[in-house]
Inverse folding.
């Protein structure tokens, strides 16, 4: 029998969403990627950049977003702590919900895990977000939602026409 602590040390495949709508958005995202790497979070795939309107206030600056497939030995709580530390180090400040931000890093899918303890996994709104689904489809066309088991194509087709048309690959 394999001990639980050995299993926890094995590498896991994780999908992260990174977005920025303040300052030099591409530089902010690239800096976040570098800091992930410096924390032993290895990027195996990266989507293109996508530009979307800010939500819920389209008058805020537009977002640039990417999705990464990463490999890590960190558990989900330690990964979240590192993501929050990176956001803060890049200049993210506490503010109101959905406020413009220099960097936002979300754990979308942690090794296909489904949990509501400490972290909601998978990300509770990923199935409704064009800026997550379309870049995720770019890097993994076979991905399935860890909870519902829906194929990513089905999730994309469930988006409104407006959501599909409003995202722009850059």
């Amino acid at each position: 029998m394999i001990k639980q602590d050995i299993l926890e040390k094995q590498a896991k495949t994780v999908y992260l969403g990174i977005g920025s709508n303040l300052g030099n958005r591409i530089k902010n995202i690239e800096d976040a990627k570098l800091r992930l790497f410096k924390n032993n979070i290895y990027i195996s795939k990266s989507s293109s950049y996508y530009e979307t309107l800010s939500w819920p206030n389209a008058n805020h600056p537009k977002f640039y977003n990417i999705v990464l497939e990463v490999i890590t030995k960190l558990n989900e709580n330690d990964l979240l702590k590192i993501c929050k530390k990176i956001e803060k180090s890049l200049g993210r400040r506490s503010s109101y919900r959905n406020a413009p931000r220099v960097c936002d890093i979300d754990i979308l899918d942690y090794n296909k895990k489904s949990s509501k303890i400490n972290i909601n996994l998978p990300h509770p709104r990923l199935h409704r977000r064009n800026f997550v689904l379309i870049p995720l489809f770019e890097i993994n066309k076979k991905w399935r939602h860890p909870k519902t088991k829906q194929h990513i194509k089905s999730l994309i087709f469930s988006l409104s026409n407006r959501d599909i048309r409003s995202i722009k690959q850059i």
